[in-house]
């Protein structure tokens, strides 16, 4: 079943998330379709890509498909997790990707749009970083994505509170590029995409990759990485992690006990 729509016009690729029934949850299937679409755009020589939900979407994406998260004793965000594959595909795509946002954005979908190169959102849009609400130990490269998009203080507030922030606040703190009224959003994004597409694609692609390499360069020692992985394992082996996943599935608030 198609969970996205794609088109390529004047070297501008468009991907529309169309799985509204599940609020575009980033399932393995949806992610595989997104990654395939980006591959097709790369082969076709797209010079800019717009990633959006369907017009009128109340939820842009509800984030990782919680039903596909392990219920414990396994890293929920390991290397081959769909969300990790999606973020890497976005970051390594040669053309700039503009995330065109209307509606609410949750969890791994916030990381997904922050991995995009430019984020343009309506004033009504919100962004919630939710691992703490689910009891999930977010992963190291995901934390780097957040740290590349906002100051450490802002990332801490988003991660520790797990509450949505407005597009206006996200723009004010530099996490997103523009806040644009809904009736101007599409024209604004396609005009920017056209400007990018008219520039030298090799220059743009090399600068995108340079910025990825430099932004992702973090001095973490093997011992430091192993310590972080050990801390994350304590979380995904915990009762609280199992409780967070179970509470979501049972549509109730979680009761965390700190073990
Ligand atoms: C699977 C879903 C989802 C969903 N997965 O509609 O960043 S981390 O670490 O947290 C990472 C692991 C991650 O990204 O986790 C997911 C984080 N996302 C969230 O916490 C948002 C969860 N969703 C919601 O809070 C609500 O669905 C919102 C507020 C987005 C929309 O609420 P609304 O009342 O409009 P429903 O909740 O009724 O959702 C409609 C259907 O989509 C499913 C949900 O289970 C329901 O399916 P059923 O009708 O089969 O029950 N759904 C929503 N989000 N992330 N499935």
Can you offer a commentary on this structure?
- The protein has one domain: 2-enoyl-CoA Hydratase, Chain A, domain 1 (Alpha-Beta Complex).
- The protein has a six-stranded mixed beta sheet with strand order 1-2-3-5-7-10, sandwiched between helices. A four-stranded mixed beta sheet has the order 4-6-8-9.
- The mean pLDDT is 97.
- It contains eleven helices and ten strands.
- The protein starts with a strand and ends in a 10-residue tail after the last helix.
- Helix 2 packs parallel to helix 3.
- The protein is of the alpha/beta class.
- The protein is globular.
- The longest helix is centred in the first third of the chain and has 17 residues.
- Helix content is 47%, strand content 15%.
- Bound molecules: ligand LCV.
- Ligand LCV binds next to helix 4.
The strand line-up of the biggest sheet is 1-2-3-5-7-10
SS-based class? alpha/beta
CATH architecture: Alpha-Beta Complex
Number of strands: 10
Shape: globular
List the helices and strands and how they pair.
Elements: E1 4-9, E2 12-17, H1 28-44, E3 48-53, E4 59-61, H2 82-92, E5 97-101, E6 104-106, H3 108-115, E7 118-121, E8 126-128, H4 131-134, H5 140-149, H6 152-161, E9 165-166, H7 167-172, E10 178-179, H8 182-197, H9 201-215, H10 222-236, H11 239-249
Helix pairs in contact: 1-2, 2-3
Bound molecules: ligand LCV.
Ligand LCV binds at residues 22-23, 25, 59, 62-67, 69, 106-108, 130-131, 133-134, 136, 138.
């Amino acid at each position: 079943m198609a969970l996205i729509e794609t088109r390529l016009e004047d070297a501008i690729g468009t991907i529309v998330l169309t799985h509204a029934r599940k609020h575009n949850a980033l399932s393995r299937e949806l992610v595989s379709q997104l990654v395939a679409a980006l591959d097709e755009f790369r082969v076709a020589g797209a010079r800019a890509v717009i990633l959006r939900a369907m017009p009128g979407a109340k939820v842009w994406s509800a984030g990782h498909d919680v039903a596909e998260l392990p219920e414990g004793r396994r890293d929920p965000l390991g290397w081959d997790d769909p969300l990790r594959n999606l973020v890497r595909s976005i970051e390594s795509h040669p053309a700039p990707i503009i995330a065109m946002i209307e509606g609410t954005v949750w969890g791994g979908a916030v990381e997904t749009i922050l991995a995009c190169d430019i984020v343009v959102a309506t004033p009504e849009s919100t962004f919630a970083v939710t691992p703490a609400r689910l009891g999930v130990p977010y992963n190291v490269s995901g934390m780097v994505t957040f740290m590349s998009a906002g100051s450490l203080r802002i990332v801490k507030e988003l991660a520790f509170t797990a509450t949505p922030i407005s597009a206006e606040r996200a723009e004010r703190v530099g996490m997103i590029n523009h806040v644009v009224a809904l009736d101007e959003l599409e024209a604004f994004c396609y005009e920017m995409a056209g400007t990018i597409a008219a520039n030298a694609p090799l220059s743009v692609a090399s600068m995108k990759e340079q910025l990825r390499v430099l932004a992702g360069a973090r001095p973490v020692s093997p011992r430091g990485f192993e310590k972080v992985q050990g801390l994350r394992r304590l979380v995904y082996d915990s009762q609280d992690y199992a409780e967070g996943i179970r509470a979501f599935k049972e549509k109730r608030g979680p009761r965390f006990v700190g073990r």
